[in-house]
Write a structure and sequence with these properties.
The complex is a heterodimer of chains A (270) and B (204).
Chain A lengths: L13 H14 L7 H16 L12 H17 L49 H22 L8 E10 L7 E8 L2 E5 L13 E7 L6 E6 L5 E3 L11 E7 L11 E6 L5
Antiparallel strand pairs in A: 1-2, 1-8, 2-3, 3-6, 4-5, 4-7, 7-8
Chain B lengths: L24 H12 L5 H21 L1 H17 L11 H25 L15 H17 L3 H12 L4 H8 L3 H25 L1
The chains are: A alpha+beta (270), B mainly alpha (204).
């Protein structure tokens, strides 16, 4: 669709206004409407008559919702200048068209469990010091696990099968590196959560593996001091490559709260 | 075709500039066009116009705890595929509600799956939480919002027409307005509301 129509700029909706007038005229319930229009009219009437008082009571969504939308769309525009992106490019909107919301301040965008857009998270500009420290800490921890778990078998150390850079979403102030290690035959995920600067909140943090479609998910349990989360034997990290940490209310509901604080995708890079 | 002698002072014609005061139809149409063309600012305008309705729908159908993230997802997805929105098939509001419906179903399914844990029973593939109530809710919220945006005197006329089954003549008599004004107000408001329902249909 072209960015501007050749129609009269003073009346950008002229043809449709005519059309709607016409449609409106046809909807006139005074005998000259045909069956289809009468049906449509009756349908509107049915809905209007079914309205309840609380249908009129709508709260404005919290500001974080718009912040999240703006951030996601901004990331779209920044992340793929004329790239493929699965054939769902923006319809010709330049980055300057984006809402003038500050790019990164709090509130953090609401995390979106349902999105399938995270196939290619924007790469960060090289290893930051914090990431490096995170990795170092993680490696240390893995070594510690290795000593505990593998020394007996005489292995040289745990194999890192895959890793995921967990990006902060809500609440978290830093990233951390999740590593999938082959520990004595079983796989375990090692996540130094202390690197992510998670605040103490009511409830608890929980670790999840989620599939590529963000459809199925497996809980690896509440956050642990030792940072080690065993994968159930039949759960393949290739089927559930997304590592997600959520904040869960202590309400006894066993499902994901929807409040993700960290997320990243396991890759086997090199 | 009775165009109605809208001579009354309370009948600002659309030709006067489409301020949308009377029935919101012209303003909604302009937004629809801009959104489908990916015009700068259209996403924000769409959010201002429909954010609360979409959010309310998500909250009531999937739960307040997930309303924020689903709402966000709806608008991001809509903007990404804005060129697929066809204003001639219905309103942007209806189309957004259709997307919200899909996203809500997704969220409900995820919740079911998570509840099922590792026992991914075949039953989960069914969608027990999804029923016609979701569509009815989308329609009600969108039309309630549309009615709320009508100028109060126009809304009164429309509600009289639907709730009390009065004829146009009776409404004109009761409100003391010219019959032509009453007719055109009902007609145009109806067309606006009808576009919302058609928008939901088009998105399904």
């Amino acid at each position: 669709m072209p960015p501007s129509d050749p129609t009269d700029p003073r009346d950008p909706v002229g043809p449709d206004r005519d059309a709607i007038e016409l449609a409106a005229a046809r909807a006139q319930p005074t005998g000259d409407a045909d069956d289809g229009d009468l049906a449509a009219l009756n349908r509107v009437g049915d809905v209007v008559r079914s309205l309840r008082d609380d249908d009129f009571l709508l709260d404005e969504p919290p500001p974080a919702v718009w912040a999240g939308i703006a951030a996601a769309v901004e990331a779209d525009a920044a992340g793929r200048p004329g790239s493929d992106a699965g054939g769902r490019d923006l319809p010709g909107a330049p980055p300057s068209s984006l809402p003038s919301t500050p790019p990164s301040p709090s509130p953090r965008p609401v995390t979106d469990l349902g999105s399938r857009r995270r196939a290619g998270p924007p790469t960060r500009g090289g290893w930051s010091g914090r990431a490096f420290i995170g990795i170092a800490a993680a490696v240390l921890l893995v070594v510690a696990i290795g000593v505990g778990a593998l020394v007996r078998s005489g292995d040289p150390g745990p194999d890192v099968v895959a890793s995921a850079d967990l990006e902060p979403l809500e609440l978290a102030s830093g990233s951390t590196l999740a590593q999938l290690v082959d520990a004595d035959g079983g796989l375990a995920l090692d996540i130094p959560l202390d690197e992510a600067g998670l605040p103490s909140e009511a409830g608890y943090y929980e670790v999840w593996l989620i599939d590529q479609d963000i459809d199925g998910m497996v809980s690896l349990g509440p956050a642990r001091e030792d940072g080690v989360y065993d994968l159930p034997p039949d759960v393949s990290y290739e089927d559930f490559p997304i590592v997600d940490v959520s904040l869960e209310p202590a309400d006894g509901v066993p499902t994901h709260s929807g409040r993700s604080v960290l997320r990243g995708t396991l890759t086997t890079d090199a | 075709m009775p165009s109605g002698p809208d001579a009354g002072p309370d009948a600002p014609d659309a030709a006067a500039g489409g301020d949308g005061v009377l029935d919101g139809g012209a303003a909604d149409l302009a937004l629809d066009q801009e959104f489908s063309a990916g015009k700068p600012g259209a996403l924000e305008a769409a959010y201002r116009r429909y954010g609360a309705v979409v959010h309310g729908y998500c909250g009531r159908s999937a739960g307040r705890d997930v309303a924020d993230e689903i709402t966000q997802d709806v608008f991001v997805a809509a903007w990404r595929s804005a060129e697929r929105f066809d204003p001639s098939r219905g309103s942007l509001g209806g189309w957004l509600m259709g997307i919200a419906r899909y996203k809500t179903i997704d969220a409900l399914r995820r919740r079911e799956r998570a509840a099922a844990g590792l026992e991914r029973a075949a039953a989960v593939a069914e969608r027990p939480a999804v029923d016609g109530g979701m569509d009815a809710l989308a329609q009600r919220l969108l039309l309630a919002d549309g009615l709320r945006r009508l100028r109060p005197d126009v809304r009164e006329v429309v509600e009289l027409a639907f709730h009390s089954d009065l004829t146009h003549e009776q409404i004109a008599e009761r409100t003391g307005r010219p019959l032509g004004t009453v007719k055109s107000q009902i007609r145009r408001s109806l067309a606006t509301l009808r576009r919302h329902l058609e928008g939901i249909d088009a998105a399904l």
